[in-house]
Amino acid sequence: MAIFDRDPWWQPRSALYMLKTALNPVRINYFRERLHGRQGGTALEVGCGGGILSEEIAALGFTTTGIDPSAAALQVAADHAKAGGLSIGYLQAVGENLPFPDNSFDVAFCCDVLEHVQDQTRTVAEIARVLKPGGIFCYDTINRTLASWLVAIGVLQKWKRWAVMPPELHTWNKFIKPEELKMLLEKSHLGWREHRGIKPATSPIRTLSYLRRRARGEWNYKDLALRLQLIEGRCTKVMYMGYAVKDTMPLRLERKGV
């Protein structure tokens, strides 16, 4: 996807900057709580892009590795980490074929990525493979509903009155329903634990007014990012996040036919 190659990621003039200011706070707080104080282990981010979430993961105390198919994005991530004095390993790879041995990581993250991969089943299976038994898989993605089409496709991409993202960024039929994802997790011996919704902190009318001001040129992306905050909620109709835990005895379960 061209936006992931060409956009400056960490710069306020970029649409991707909103990942840092709007999306990162809600999801990293959620994951921190579900990790139950785990730190000092190894963590993998699948689809790390420019490293916006990888640096947050490293700040939690994990020895962090990020993979992404975009060499340009990985260079941005590596340069930013180096400038900040962070030691994060970045490798060019895809989620469907992770270049790591079995049972390599204590935690794996795949955030805002499952709706972009070529093979969701294979990606989840690979994440499960490289997780240690008892390891935690943290993720967020977009549901496939009418509401998600209106918000993620219509408002944010398609309709110029409000759009902030390129029209080709997301494809609605690649969004994944929570029940579908739960099935993929179970198939890969990842025990699903919870799903929680992600939504704007402001009302729909106020949120649309913010987007409109950016579209009219009254605000830049930084102005929008400072005001558009996302929060955790119960509704999963548009975006949701969750976590699963890798079975400690998957081979025994297979022999029993479970």
From TrEMBL:
Gene3D superfamilies cross-referenced by the UniProt entry: Vaccinia Virus protein VP39
InterPro entries associated with the record: Methyltransf_11 (IPR013216), SAM-dependent_MTases_sf (IPR029063), UbiG_MeTrfase (IPR010233)
Signal sequence annotation: none
One Pfam family here: Methyltransf_11
Claim: Transferase is one of the keywords in the record: yes
Gene Ontology biological process terms, A to Z: methylation
Domain Methyltransferase type: 44-138
Entry keyword Transferase: yes
Top-level taxon: Bacteria
Gene Ontology MF terms in the entry: 3-demethylubiquinol 3-O-methyltransferase activity; polyprenyldihydroxybenzoate methyltransferase activity
This protein's UniProt keywords: Methyltransferase, S-adenosyl-L-methionine, Transferase, Ubiquinone biosynthesis
NCBIfam families the record matches: UbiG
Record protein name field: SAM-dependent methyltransferase, type 11
Source taxonomy: Bacteria, Pseudomonadati, Thermodesulfobacteriota, Desulfuromonadia, Geobacterales
